[in-house]
Amino acid sequence: MSTQPPQPTRAPQPARPSLTERRKAATQLDIARAAAELFAERGPDGTTAEEIAHRAGVALRTFYRYFRNKQDAVAPLLAGGAAQWRARLAELDAGVPTALERSIAEALTPVDTRTDEALEWTRGLLRAAQDDPALRAVWYRVNQESEEQLAPVLARLAGEGADELEVRLAAAAATDAIRIALETWAATDDPPRGPRSPADLAVRCLRELTGGLRLLER
Fold first, then answer.
1. CA–CA gap between residue 179 and residue 145 (Å, rounded)
2. Quick count: other Cβ atoms within 10 Å of Cβ 133?
3. Which Pfam family, just one, is annotated for this protein (predicted)?
4. How far is Cα 58 from Cα 20, in angstroms, rounded to an integer?
5. List of residues 6+ apart from 184 with CB closer than 8 A
6. Alpha-carbon distances of 3 from 6, 7, 8, 9, rounded to whole Å
7. Which of 5, 53, 195, 209 is buried deepest, with most CB atoms within 10 A?
8. What residues contact 188, with CB distance under 8 A and at least 6 apart?
9. CATH of domain 74-216
């Protein structure tokens, strides 16, 4: 019988996307940006799928290969920030409370023109969603999917023996903290940095929503 101590189990690393998958994702993002630009210019009601496809430089059949309707086209843009946030969170070597707060603050604090632009696109889309139930449904779906993908990340950070219910509650609270922060900020003309910025609001929401969770006790 071996007397070697057991080695820690590493979380499996996701496989690198294939070239085809990367091209598909790039095309989807091009279409999403085109849709966001047109929604900002004309609103969802004043925009057609044909116009989005033309702006993105793809055929209409390509548009419908990836998206069911024009509102669905912005989903990759709304989901992209959450995917980067979860990836950053998974890399942090810290306790769950510290890792969550730090990753949320970093994810929602713009550091260059590109991230400034991404936040402004989100603001425009959330404003448009107020009067467009289909666009609002896309936003809610993106958040639900993000919550489901966040739970296993938090479970790994919490370690073996973490209470499953606490993990799910933490995932829901963190996702809602970001959602509510972005919706609150989008309804204002506040800048993307400083007091009442998305990062500031999200950290405040997280603390309020997780005050009773043992998993996030400091």
1. 13
2. 10
3. TetR_N
4. 16
5. 201
6. 9, 12, 15, 18
7. 53
8. 196
9. 1.10.357.10
Domain ranges (residues) in the chain: 74-216
What DSSP line would sit under the chain, residue for residue? ---SPPPPPPPPPPPPPPHHHHHHHHHHHHHHHHHHHHHHHH-GGG--HHHHHHHHT--HHHHHHH-SSTGGGGHHHHHHHHHHHHHHHHH--S-HHHHHHHHHHHHTS--SHHHHHHHHHHHHHHHHHTT-HHHHHHHHHHHHHHHHHHHHHHHHHH-TT--HHHHHHHHHHHHHHHHHHHHHHHTS---SSSTTSHHHHHHHHHHHHTTT-GGG--
CA angle 182, 148, 160 (to 5 degrees): 120
pLDDT tens, the chain, 218 aa long: 444 443 333 444 555 678 778 899 999 999 999 999 999 899 999 999 999 999 999 999 999 999 999 999 999 999 988 999 999 998 887 788 888 999 999 999 999 998 999 899 999 999 999 999 999 999 999 999 999 999 999 999 998 889 999 999 999 999 999 999 999 999 999 999 999 999 999 999 999 999 878 777 75
The answer to whether 148 and 79 have CB atoms below 8 angstroms apart is no
pLDDT given for residue 7 in this prediction = 39
Q: For residues 156 and 215, is the Cβ–Cβ distance under 8 A? A: no
